[in-house]
Amino acid sequence: MELHEALAEVVGPAHVLTDPELKAGYERDWTGRFQGHASAVVRPADTDQVAGVMRVCAGLEARVVPQGGNTGMVGGGVPREPHEIVISMLRLNEIGPVDEALGQVTVGAGATLAALRDAASQAGLDPALDFAARDSCTIGGVVACDAGGARALRHGTARARVAGLEAVLADGSVISRLSGLTKDNAGYNLPALLVGSEGTLGIVTRVRWKLVPRLDSRVAALVALGSAGEAAQLLATLRARAPSLESCDFFTDDGLSLVLAHQRRSSPLAERAPFYVLAECAARSDPTEELAEALTEAGADDALIADDSSSRERLWALREGHAEAINAAGIPHKLDVGIPLDRLDAFLDRVPAAVDGAGGERVILFGHLGDGNVHVNVLGAAPNDPAVDDAVLGLVLECAGTISAEHGIGVAKAAWLERARGITEVAAMRAVKRALDPGWLLNPGAVLTTKEET
Question: What is the pLDDT of residues 158-167, one digit of tens each?
Answer without folding.
Answer: 999 999 999 9
